[in-house]
Amino acid sequence: MIDSLLSAFKIADLRLKLFWTFGLLLVFRFIAHVPVPGVDAQRLRELFATNQLIGMLDLFSGGALSSFSVAAMGVYPYITASIIMQLLIPMVPRLQELAKEGESGRNRINQYTHWFTVPLAFLQALGTGSLLASSQLGVIPEFNLFLNPLPTLSIIISMVAGTMLLIWIGELISERGIGNGISIIIFGGIVASLPTMVGQSIFAGTNYLALLIFLVIGVLTVAAIVMVQEGQRRVPVQYAKRIRGGRIYQGPATHIPMRVNSSGMIPLIFAMSIMLFPGTVASYFVYSDIGWIAGIANFVSGVFNPVHVVYWLLYFLLVVGFTFFYTTVIFQQQNIAESLQKNGGFIPGIRPGRPTGEYLNKVLIRITWFGAVFLGAIAILPFFVQNLTNVQALTLSSTALLIVVGVVLDTMKQLEAQLLMRHYQGFIR
User: Fold this and answer.
1) 8 Å CB contact between 205 and 390
2) Tens of pLDDT, residues 94-118
3) How does the average pLDDT of the chain come out, rounded?
4) Closest listed residue to residue 174, CA positions, set 184, 162, 186, 166
5) Mean pLDDT lowest for which of 5-9, 164-168, 253-257?
6) Domain locations in the chain?
7) Which of 139, 161, 300, 388 is deepest in the core (most CB within 10 A)?
């Protein structure tokens, strides 16, 4: 990896791409420290010091939520909109037609995704502000859409504008830099939070044996994520013979790479969103004057809390379920069996058409079982690590590890592909 970076800096256009990427990341970190108006910073720090659940959310914003900056929501409204659009494509005929129109259709779907992001960001900003305003500390005392509409709207609009600005920066990285810009924005936020997290959660303790065990488990977890992310089942494909100029040419042989974890981190994001929703709603009613409502809210807040074992059991089951769901949806959209049949390809021993589709579905389900259980195990690993080592590792979530490892792998693959292309050009000349 270091050799690839050094080689990239020797090539003018790649060096410019890397400078674009690093420069835009610096702009993102600057935006993450621009606070919205009307926030009590002292009470906000006290809230994050006492609420572990909100501390987990702050990790993915790169510390922007703890300072309640204009980038507090990050690019997650756009990710949510993208996931919803992907799920709507097979159900809406118009979106199916756009998906088959190539680049122009994809651009149109991307435009719809941007439009859908704005109301989602508005709702998330309203929910986040209401949560902090309704807390016992009263972090944003003036946040009330009905009693104080202008101050509240100024906060919401600032947060929505910050989210859309980060999306634009991410697209600039994709266009002029290296890697997927949106993923790199998330990666930058997580990495920026790591020094503070390590200092507060790990080195605050004095049990060096537990610390060593924690570090070993972390290294092994990263290695396992890399192996599973790169793992694939190669299904052989043979193309029919072709006749050219009176000669018969053997059709090329290739394979279909079916990844063990083709859904990536999406199931974890789905599951985490659902697990956070009940606790977030219950937090509005914890201090209710009606006793039975406050009791139910306290019970729900206790169950859907990262320190409760039921939370992690439900989290595991949701991750496994969403892995199968998302993998199946994405695989059906690809229509691999139909594409093979149109191009004269077939799997040896399997008839083209419907039998090929059924065979691929069986293979997909078999390999997805391992990927789903692995994602579920990684998701609940922080709970066991904390109980084993007594190190506060909950903030080092599995989703963060998957994002970091996945972004690094994808970025390095793109960088090596750029280097390989330029190496071939130099060789031909």
Assistant:
1) yes
2) 888 887 777 788 888 888 899 999 9
3) 76
4) 184
5) 5-9
6) 1-200, 205-391
7) 139
Residue 290's Cβ-count burial label (10 Å; 0-12, 13-18, 19+) is: exposed
Asked whether the beta carbons of 62 and 69 are under 8 A apart, the reply is no
The CATH label, of 3.10.28.10, 1.20.1290.10, 3.10.560.10, 1.10.3370.10, for the domain at 1-200 is 1.10.3370.10
Which SS3 state, helix, strand or coil, does residue 89 take? Answer: coil
Q: What values do phi and psi take at 12, rounded to 5? A: -60, -50
Q: How far is CA 271 from CA 125, 277, 394, in A?
A: 20, 10, 16
**How many angstroms from the chain centroid is the CA of residue 8?**
27
CATH topology of domain 205-391: Preprotein translocase SecY subunit (1.10.3370)
Structure tokens that stand for 212 in this block: 């060593």
Give one word for 248, left, alpha or beta, with left for phi > 0 and alpha for psi -120 to 50: beta
- Which one has a higher pLDDT value, 89 or 289? 89
Can 1-200 and 205-391 be said to share one CATH topology? yes
* Residue 151, burial from CB neighbour count under 10 angstroms (0-12, 13-18, 19+): middle
Is a pLDDT exceeding 60 seen at residue 204? no
Phi-psi map region of 179: left, alpha, beta (phi>0 left; psi -120 to 50 alpha) = left
Beta carbons of 275 and 304 less than 8 angstroms apart: yes
